[in-house]
Amino acid sequence: MESPAPDAKLEHARRLLDAQDLGLAELARAVGLSATHLQRRFRQAYGLSPAEYRSQRRLDGLKQGLRAGHDVTRALYDAGYGSPSRVYEHGAARLGMAPLAYRRGGEGMDIRWSVSDTALGLALVAVTARGVCAVLLGDDAAALEASLRAEFPRATIERVDAGRDEFLAPRVRAVADALAARSGAVPVELVGTAFQRRVWEALMRIPPGETRSYAELAESLGMPRGARAVARACAGNRVAVLVPCHRVIRGDGSLGGYRWGLPRKQALLEAEAAGRKARA
Predict the structure, then answer these.
(1) What pLDDT score does 3 carry?
(2) Strand ranges (E), 142-226
(3) Please, what is the average pLDDT of the chain?
(4) CA-CA distance, 94 to 201, in Å (whole number)?
(5) How many Cα neighbours within 13 Å face the side chain of 277?
(6) Are 94 and 194 in contact (CB under 8 A)?
(7) How many CB atoms lie within 10 A of CB 256?
(8) For 43-67, what is the mean pLDDT?
(9) Which of 53, 153, 170, 192 could form a disulfide with 196 if both were Cys (CB 3.0 to 4.6 A apart)?
(10) What is the C-alpha separation between 211 and 254, in angstroms, rounded?
(11) Is the CB of residue 191 less than 8 Å from the CB of residue 132?
């Protein structure tokens, strides 16, 4: 069974942080807990400290303002940053790019991509200079390209022949190998919130051929009541297979969800289990 929802005091603390910029001591007094107790229980429930949670909420507000077309200064102050420097201290790295570039839909980013036939259908592999930024699975190349362009609408996106690009080619092969349950490793650029990256990095530590429940993964991150938050982070993963969210299942052993379809998830798990058995 999945872990129960956070208790009323923690939910009250979270709602207060949604509305106000409270310090730990003030927040603890408001909900009737000691600061130490609140800090520990909040992190267990949500995967972040109260200060980290509030920082993430400000960052979410900044993203919304930038996407709405507000100028950077207005978006910064509307989101609760006291000065422009604060967003660079506490938030810009989590955007994966400078705030202005984020508002412009990734303008200034250079992304190369290719589609390849794999053991589980088509795979679109997209890379930046730092590594793989997206692996999208499907049956329609045009739909996969549309998804990539929706993610980075104003980036410079170039389709190339994977075999003719010395940077992209080995990464496409690595994805194909992973989809066929063969060994392979490739640099990955994780663009997400601090908590999402924690979850995605934990996924990458699950050995091929093994699975974890959402609750078990949450427990490994020190947040035993955070199964739902972990599930949301898994759903936000855009790098299929290399960040193996397919290795997370429900507590009752059922597959749960999968962004690229349950048949692919089942096939990946079966191939990895067979590969592990053959290596034993």
Answers:
(1) 47
(2) 156-159, 212-213
(3) 77
(4) 15
(5) 6
(6) yes
(7) 19
(8) 70
(9) 192
(10) 11
(11) no
Q: Which amino acid is at 278?
A: A
CB 160 within 8 A of CB 167: no
Counts for the chain of helices (H) and strands (E), in that order? 14, 6
Assess contact for 240 and 121: CB atoms under 8 A: no
Q: Taking 50 as the threshold, does the pLDDT of residue 102 lie above it?
A: no
**In whole angstroms, what is the distance from residue 9 CA to residue 5 CA?**
12
- 125, 135 in Cβ contact below 8 A? yes
Task: Output 159 or 179, whichever has higher pLDDT.
Answer: 159
Q: What is the pLDDT of residue 239?
A: 87
What does the buried/exposed string (b/e) look like for 103-134 if buried means 16 or more CB atoms within 10 Å of the residue's CB? bbbbeebebbbbbbebbbbbbbbbbbeeebbb
Structure token digits, residue 231: 């599930």
Q: What is the predicted pLDDT for the residue at 120? A: 79
Decide if pLDDT at 66 tops 70: no
**Which of these, 170, 151, 168, 150, lies nearest to 160 by C-alpha position?**
168
Cβ atoms within 10 A of the Cβ of 7, count? 11
How many CB atoms lie under 10 A from the CB of residue 84? 12
Task: Give yes or no: 133 in active site.
Answer: no
Strand 212-213 relative to strand 131-138, pairing:
unpaired
Q: Which two tokens stand for residue 36?
A: 């130490």
Which candidate in 27, 178, 186, 245 is catalytic?
245
Amino acid present at 228: R
For the stretch 204-248, pLDDT in tens is: 889 888 999 999 999 998 888 889 889 989 998 888 888 899 999
